[in-house]
């Protein structure tokens, strides 16, 4: 089985961190009065939950095989998070404009 096929099937690592403990640990570095709002928004749907729990995805994908090609992961690729910019040499480029929670990592994590 090639690496891409392996990535298509989730098997929890025997050393998997507890997802709730991970969210609690994240909360220790956030504004405490805003945590109930965060958790309420995350509980609205599976999409909202996954959108608010990138750390869980990183914990699950971390031990998985990857190409070794690292990029600045965006994880939120919708048109509102891209824009047109002018470069120093007066060219126009189209690129990511929302780096609120980006992180360097394997390109497969952002696919």
Question: Mind explaining what this structure looks like?
Answer:
The chain is of the alpha+beta class. The protein folds into two domains: 65 residues, no CATH class; 46 residues, no CATH class. Strand 2 and strand 3 form a beta hairpin. The longest helix is centred in the first third of the chain and has 9 residues.
Strand and helix map with partners:
Elements: H1 3-7, H2 19-27, H3 35-42, H4 46-51, H5 54-61, E1 70-73, E2 82-86, E3 92-96, E4 103-106
Antiparallel strand pairs: 1-4, 2-3
Characteristic terms for this protein:
two-stranded antiparallel sheet, 111 residues, alpha+beta
In short:
By secondary structure, this protein is α+β, with helices and mostly antiparallel strands.
**Can you tell me the overall shape?**
globular
Proportion of strand residues: 15-25%
Distance between the termini: 19 Å
Sheet with most strands: strand arrangement: 1-4
Question: For the report, how would you describe the main beta sheet?
Answer: 2 strands, antiparallel
The helix content, as a percent range, equals 25-40%
